Amino acid sequence: MSPNGRKGRRLVAEMNVVPYIDVMLVLLIIFMVTAPLLTQGIKVDLPKAGAEPLPPDKDAKPLILSVDSGGRYYLNIGSDEESAIDEDTVVQRVKTVLSREPKTPVLVKADTNVAYGSVVTGMVLLQQAGAEKVGFVTDPKTAQKARAPR
Questions:
Q1: CA distances from 108 to 11, 68, 129, 145 (A)
Q2: Nearest to 138 by CA among 130, 147, 125
Q3: Which residue from 8, 61, 127, 139 has the fewest beta carbons nearer than 10 Å?
Q4: Which pTM value belongs to this model?
Q5: SS3 for 43?
Q6: Which domains, ranges and CATH numbers included, belong to the chain?
Q7: pLDDT tens-digit profile of 74-86?
């Protein structure tokens, strides 16, 4: 027996971490379940700041979906490239081109004043037709002027 009447038990000054590990595992499971639900939208390869233009590929002519200020769609393939086409025709033509040449670059060229919804709809049509990556055509001179200090 010890001098103050206790039977030899010592106090343990350790923290029990088992409940904290359980809480962390529950949070991990919650994040693993909810993370895939948060990623929605169209897959787009966004350009990096200061990126150089890609060298032209001599073998593959890019497929360009143009959207004018009225939200009408034009493709650089087909018999009449200067006439507007509807959404079903866009999907059919792009699907045909990509079935023959799956590595064809797909680009969107939109007017500055076009509604954002028309561009997104065009990108969804390209995605439905099988385009995995979609790029944007821009005017580098305009982009440099926009970045100039005021």
A1: 71, 11, 14, 22
A2: 147
A3: 8
A4: 0.56
A5: coil
A6: 63-147 (3.30.420.270)
A7: 888 877 777 888 8
